[in-house]
Amino acid sequence: MKDDDLMALAEKLGKEIEAMPKDGKERSISITVGGNNTGNISVGGTQIVFNPREQQRSWADLDLAELRAHLAHWKAQWWSGWRGFWLNMPCLMLIAGLMLLGAGLLTGWLLTLSPQTMPYVLAPSIILMAILSTWMMRIRRVEGRLMVDSQAYIDAIEMELRRRRR
Questions:
Q1: Which has fewest Cβ within 10 Å: 55, 89, 98, 129?
Q2: Distances in Å between the alpha carbon of 40 and those of 3, 32, 100?
Q3: What angle do CA 108, 121, 128 make, to 5 degrees?
């Protein structure tokens, strides 16, 4: 069938549909195909066609295996957020810096510095710690949000699993 034939068929079909009475009753149209492709095409009734996008399934729609797989995924996401919250680079650098300052105090090295050299040691340390703290808080804000979102999913899945145990 050529495109022109298909367009002509569509126009005829459109005219037939428009010519039908508008009384609210169901009607049907039958098209007989001849030639090498014999057969009938029946068009009738009203059907509601949903959007082809898959609808979002709720936790109640999933089976137990899928729920457990989702639970494992969100728990892994939560632990990833926890590691990012506590074991990020600026946090580790701050801990190392504080340990160095503590070691300097315990060994007495910081206390033996002269008053002229003390600002040259402490001022860069304070500035570096302020920069690292700002950087760490930005990372922690994102990782904390990931943990909160993951925990919400974990709670919802565990609630559904608990509901199914009854």
A1: 55
A2: 20, 5, 87
A3: 120
83 CA to centre of own chain: 19
In the structure encoding, which two tokens stand for residue 5, read together? 């034939």
Q: What is the 3-state secondary structure (H, E, C) of 76-106?
A: HHHHHHHHHHHCCHHHHHHHHHHHHHHHHHH
Work out the number of other CB atoms within 10 angstroms of the CB of residue 134.
Answer: 10
Tell me how far apart the alpha carbons of residues 129 and 2 are, in angstroms, rounded to a whole number: 75
Cβ(114)–Cβ(66) below 8 Å: no
Report the alpha-carbon distance of residue 99 to residue 91 in Å, rounded.
Answer: 12
User: What pTM did the predictor assign?
Assistant: 0.58
pLDDT by residue, tens only, the chain of 166 residues: 567 877 887 788 788 778 877 777 777 776 666 666 655 565 555 455 555 566 678 888 888 999 999 999 999 999 999 999 999 999 999 999 999 999 999 999 988 989 999 999 889 999 999 999 999 999 999 999 999 999 999 999 999 999 988 6
CB atoms near residue 158 (< 10 Å): 14
Q: Name 127's Cβ contacts closer than 8 Å, sequence gap at least 6.
A: none
